[in-house]
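User
New here, help please:
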Amino acid sequence: MSFRLQVTDPVKDKISILQVDQTITVLDLKALIEVELQIAVARQQLIYGGRILNDNDTLSKYNMQNEDLVLVERKQKQQRTPLELEAIKFIKHFQQNPHSLEALRVKDPKLAESIQNKKLAGVMEFIQQQQQKKLQEQQEYIRKMQQLEQDPLNPENQKIIEEMINKKNIEENREYAEEYIPESFGTVTMLYIELSINRHPVQAFVDSGAQSTIMSKACAERCGIMRLVDTRFQGIAQGVGTQKIIGRIHVVEMQILDQFLPCSLTILDGDSIDFLFGLDMLKRYQCNINLKDNCLIFPNEKLSVQFLPEGQINKRISIQQEQEILKRQNSDSKIQEEQLITKSNNPQQQQQQQPQQQQQQQQQQQQQQPQQQQQQQQPYQQQQQQPSINSRYPEQSIQAIINIGATRAEAITVLDQTFGNVELAASIIMQQKYGFN
């Protein structure tokens, strides 16, 4: 049976008339009211004859008559407790900081799972435990302070009071950091870029705190450039600990995106970090480390290369090991190279450093016949002449370098260093001979 029903919204002082049937449920009536009065079903509370209507009941149960009045009240929003609000804030923070969530997963997997699945109960339990623990610590602190202040002139008590105050200040400082700069407790992704050395892809770690650009021996072998290492520049890299310097590659071609740039490398023994793009090359190309746009900018070359996201970095070592290596290599931002060139130019110093066994061998060689000495000198002379005889570069390229002031041996050496690039070799000679850039 159909009849007319008046529904009123006391908040907006509005009355609407609905044509309804006795067989519909209260929930169906609420749906009609939502369309008519724009009040969400979940917020409606219908009152008829002083009674609150049940959603599952039909209208016939309440004996409603034509033109009867139904009052539509709004349900009050449920107030969340401070603990619930704190848990929601806690979950939101970790959702916005996935790196912090991953670090928490290692420390407390259960809590990390509750945060990931938005389980308020689990997070509230953790926060409550922390609050109780903090309350107990405060009570214990007050109890100890009261006990110590009974004899404040005792030197031992004064020392303990000072330690307790310092610990409290440190804890307050940590809590402040957790609230206002929580990212400081996470792990920062290091800055890596992709480049190529001798057509071999390499991920370079950008470190403005390293004085020199460094490549590991293992990476140099993969790139096929170990033959260019000048072992006269052997030495020791000193930081927190030491690491052997095998030598130096004076120039090698480095490709970043579509541009080729010359680069000087110090080769370290080991395979901890493949390539460390240091301050020398950053200053050489006046690079800008743009953390806002997450890129490394080469302004003179009009080149910008994005830093790699953490997921694309080839991790052969853990973050903790990486940081330890950087401390060892760059703690003082300095590499001390023991250049052996000065030693080779000082025969007297070399002779003083020779072991006793080598001196005995020299005495035996002096007693040998002159004919044997002559036989030993001939291969050495041939070895000195061999680069010019068996040069694998066109005579025209060698002559072009000689024409700007280099010797034939220097021309071949610099062509070796630049993989036969005549223009790059010429610029190196010009810089060495005349100081031109």
In short: The chain has three domains: 2-74, 82-185, 192-330. Residues 317-322, 331-358, 367-390 have pLDDT under 50 and may be disordered. The longest helix spans residues 120-148. The CA atoms of residues 239 and 328 lie 5 Å apart.
